[in-house]
Write a structure and sequence with these properties.
259 residues; alpha/beta; Rossmann fold; two-stranded antiparallel sheet; 10 helices; disordered N terminus; disordered C terminus
Length: 259
């Protein structure tokens, strides 16, 4: 009771406002519902994560199925997201990432914990190490923190896994690059700890805020596996695209954006 009284008193000086625009709460009931959504597999929608699985120079018959000339692709790693990067979920991510609402990380982390548990269960391993995607130094200075590292720390506090904060840096920025150039993004791991974790073949899950083409996740996967670590998959808050069926269901559930 006293906590609520204090919160209402403070709101007279600094009004509480949800990222969707609704006043009276740092996170309204509808936006909290977004964080209770079951994680969705989105790797099939990430172009940069597709790798060549098979090529056929002539038509093949396998049982009753006829496979045409062409190539088949398979995703490099599984990726789980809470929803599509749009509407209230996009507003929440932007407020947390760039809008100074750093407290939202502690609300987002428990929502991602089931996705981490799912990847661990599918691989038959204990809670894995959690590795954040690194931000460029200029972005960290602008935001005042490394938001993905803080998200990983909050995830670790839920018991989903162990935070593994490896010194890392992107070797190229994404701004102004085309789709083909984004696919070639590289991330460099630095320091002794990455080598030590690699020698143990540590199972890890990559954590990021938003996935678009998957180029950054691909760069992290290459960097981690090059050091010997076993990447179980990635979890993200939102994805630029969802599989068609999931997008339709999510759109109906979210409804219009609050003003």
């Amino acid at each position: 009771m006293w906590r609520e009284i204090l919160a209402h008193t403070c709101s007279l000086v600094a009004p509480r406002c949800c990222p969707c625009g609704r006043e009276g709460s740092w996170l309204c009931g509808r936006c909290e519902t977004l964080l209770r959504a079951a994680p969705v597999r989105v790797e099939a929608c990430c172009d940069a994560l597709q790798v060549l699985a098979e090529a056929r120079v002539r038509e093949e018959r396998r049982g009753r199925e006829v496979l045409p000339v062409g190539v088949d692709h398979a995703p490099l790693l599984p990726v789980l997201a809470l929803g599509e990067y749009g509407g209230p979920l996009q507003a929440m991510v932007l407020a947390w990432k760039n809008g100074g609402m750093l407290h939202l990380g502690s609300r987002i982390a428990p929502a991602l914990a089931p996705a981490v548990a799912q990847l661990a269960a599918e691989s038959g391993v204990a809670p894995p190490a959690l590795v954040p995607v690194p931000s460029r130094r200029a972005a960290r200075l602008r935001r005042g923190e490394d938001h993905t590292a803080e998200l990983v720390r909050a995830l670790a506090r839920t018991g989903a896994g162990r935070a593994l904060l490896l010194p890392a840096r992107p070797t190229t920025a994404q701004d102004g690059l085309g789709a083909r150039q984004r696919r070639a993004r590289r991330i460099r791991l630095e320091g002794r700890r990455a080598r030590e974790e690699g020698r143990r073949a540590r199972p890890v899950v990559i954590v990021d805020d938003v996935v678009t083409t998957g180029a950054t996740l691909r760069g992290m996967h290459e960097a981690l596996t090059a050091h010997g670590m076993r990447v179980l998959g990635a979890v993200v808050v939102a994805a630029a695209r969802l599989p068609d069926g999931d997008a339709e269901v999510l759109g109906d559930a979210q409804g219009p954006v609050a003003g």
